[in-house]
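A further point concerns the way the authors explain their paired sequence and structure data. An entry of this sort, consisting of the sequence and the corresponding backbone structure tokens, reads as follows:
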Amino acid sequence: MGATFCVTTGMVWGMEAQPVRVEVSLSGGLPGIAIVGRPDSSVLEARSRVRCAIRSAGFSLPREAVTVNLSPSDVRKTGTAFDLPIAVAILAATGQIPRAGLAGSLIVGELSLEGEVMPVRGLMAYGELAQSLGMTLVGPRGALAAHADREVTGRFVQTLAQFRGGVDNVGEPVEVVRASGRPPVVTDFADVAGQEIAKRGLAIAAAGRLGVLLIGPPGIGKTMLARCVPDILPPITEEEMFETLLIHSVAGVSDERVEAGQRPFRAPHHSASIAGLIGGGRPVRPGEVSLAHNGVLFLDELGEFARNTLGALRQPIEEGSVRVTRAEGSYTFPCRFQLIAASNPCPCGHLGDPGQRCTCSEGAVSGYRAKLTGPLADRIDVMCLLERPTLAEMMGPATGSSTADLRAVVTRAREFAAWRRAGVGAAGSTSPRLARRGARIAQMVEESRLSGEAIDLLNRASARGMSARGITSVLRVARVVADMDQSEHVQPRHLAEALGYRERTLEG
């Protein structure tokens, strides 16, 4: 009579893992391993890896036909995490390893031909699945983060041979990564010569979670300024760290910044595809916008990105999530990030630069401007035009705003905004009439508590042809500036500064 045995494993599906039963049956017939249950090519290749790994680990292959069923059988199986559970199930079915403890274990891992257990993507998702099933995770070494008060129980295993003494004796206990406070600053805003207006604009954006576009000639510090922004954002919380590490885990991407307690900083190349930026592929994985979740997404050389790629960013920016639909189902990935974009003013980068002559044709400049002022730019609230610093600024001592200075400004503004919103909510100052759909500007005017002079200034700006989206953007920035000034009312000076950051100088 043939022997049968099963173990539990999982399969990554979007942001989570779904349970899969690995059932093994030994029967008469020609020796070999057959895998059923809708496996893809990567799963079918496990047959060769498992055979070699079993021999290398000192075990023997059964001289019978081995049938492996991956249940549920109506779901397509993909990935290499099935290698280890298939091998363990075969060894348990043939009596070569103890069966004790296997029923309460969730086993995942890829096998090398020498029997080593290799890393797999989505280890944190498997840990969440094991915790929800009340099981112990057994798999390769990798980063696991704590989620609130819950702990993942499990063990890291290095080789298949370790299972010889039973699953309860394999490997080492899992190591849990926790947010450990704010790490030291590596790049400081003070290291950037001049550019105080841009630093102010970035602080406003960080305080209000607004998008920023930095425009200026090459080599003046746009990228360096962007890389400093994560250090002025609030420290990453344990919950945010868990979400961020989970996304990186299912994407198969390691990020030492997040593991060290920093917010992520992603800077995709302008040649990135829509799938690479937004998410997709086969199997479906998170894109750069999701890898930047709870951190900063930096789009350098914005004018070089393809128009359809930039257009695909509109929905993630507005909704804070990405939904990828395939024939087998839909996948949703979070993507709430701080958007920072940088661009040269023209293809050669020297339009308006007094130190260099622009060599671009009028048509090339027009096409370049169209990308900078298109639908994506309408969703960027702060635009900063940078100029080349003088020699004295570059050679002189660092006297401008530092990261510590701007971090204090951002922290105070966020704390004041939280206090103000709590007061408004308690007083119920927003009327139901203004909260209805289509009255967003009126609602923002009321919530901003604009003074009479500020309303007159807004009317004059609107008369110059500013769109409804532009007015909304200006009010949003002005409200943040007022919060930085610890003011409950938006004053004319706050509105004037907001209008300055909205000025579309490139449109001519």
Remarks:
- Confidence is low (pLDDT under 50) at residues 426-438, 504-508.
- The radius of gyration is 28 Å.
- Residues 403-427 form the longest helix (25 residues).
